[in-house]
Design brief:
Oligomer: single chain
Distance between the termini: 63 Å
Largest sheet: none
Structural class: mainly alpha
Length: about 230
């Protein structure tokens, strides 16, 4: 098989898997359905990925590659807080436009396991929080700030995927509440009820993130809500 054809088939299999996952977030998917969508047989899939987990890992890695490409298209404003805002919006937009990839990237978890590709966008966020800290603009450590941002950002994005609709007002409110929480500055546009609403939704679907991760996300969101009271 020519190299180009091999590459195309592999990409088509990953996209088919992502589409099936997007159709039923949090549920299992059939390898046979993946093959049927592409028009190949099971041995072809196993040739490229070795196993179902191999396919999932490849989809996750490709999802992060797409995500980083979108991130690279963003120009830095020179202001780390403004760039955090832009990164938040890009994160939500990517998740809603690519629910299949996103569900695997941030919604499917295994205890003690973190995909290597996940480290790259986290490092980009850490660079922003470290810059903000160096400018004296954080009320918490750069590590805690990044954790709060990521937890809230993921929560808002998964909420949109679960409900199959965007909620830009809530996203902006959560974004500003999170920034207010990590900078210690007032003026966030979210109420504590807004934040608790996202925490409650996440708690109602623990199978999406996993029980331990959902509990941690809810804890962070409720801490932000308490900050707003």
């Amino acid at each position: 098989m020519p190299e180009v054809a091999k590459s195309d088939t592999r990409a088509q299999l990953m996209e088919a898997a992502a589409e099936l996952i997007a159709a039923s977030p949090g549920e299992d998917f059939s390898l046979r359905d993946v093959c049927d969508r592409v028009g190949v047989r099971m041995p072809t899939l196993y040739h490229f990925f070795g196993s179902k987990q191999g396919l999932i890992d490849a989809v996750v890695e490709h999802g992060f590659e797409l995500y980083l490409e979108a991130k690279r298209d963003q120009e830095s404003s020179g202001d780390p807080i403004a760039d955090i805002r832009g990164g938040w919006d890009a994160h939500v937009r990517f998740g809603l436009e690519n629910p299949g990839f996103y569900t695997l990237m941030y919604g499917k978890v295994r205890p003690g396991y973190s995909p290597a590709a996940q480290a790259k966008p986290t490092m980009l966020l850490m660079k922003l929080t470290e810059r903000a800290a160096a400018e004296g603009r954080l009320a918490v450590s750069p590590e805690q700030a990044a954790a709060h941002i990521l937890a809230a950002n993921i929560g808002v994005t998964l909420r949109g995927i679960i409900l199959a609709e965007s909620d830009p007002e809530l996203s902006v409110a959560m974004r500003e509440a999170t920034i207010a929480g990590i900078t210690g500055e007032g003026g966030g546009s979210a109420s504590s009820d807004d934040v608790r609403r996202v925490a409650s939704l996440a708690s109602g679907v623990p199978e999406v993130l996993g029980e331990a991760e959902t509990a941690l996300l809810s804890q962070w969101l409720r801490r932000l809500a308490d900050h707003l009271d």
